[in-house]
Amino acid sequence: MMIQAGEMNFVQAIVELEHRLSTLEKCYDFTLRNNFSVKGPSQIEIEKFRQDSLDELQRKYPSLGLQKM
Q1: Of all residues in the chain, what percent are helix, strand and coil, respectively (each to 5)?
Q2: For residue range 43-63, what is the model confidence (pLDDT) as tens digits?
Q3: What is the pTM of this model?
């Protein structure tokens, strides 16, 4: 099954994103568990990461009209 909007295949994108997110979560958890001197990002840093990610997606998929939720 393929659901397409503009240049984006939603089914493929969702599966790929779930895989990437799961991998990143496992890497992040491993790093925090095994490096006691490492501290997690602050809420301000997390918000900056989110905004930077949204900016990248808006450039990559301009026809989708993505906005901050």
Answers
A1: 65, 5, 30
A2: 999 999 999 999 998 998 888
A3: 0.62
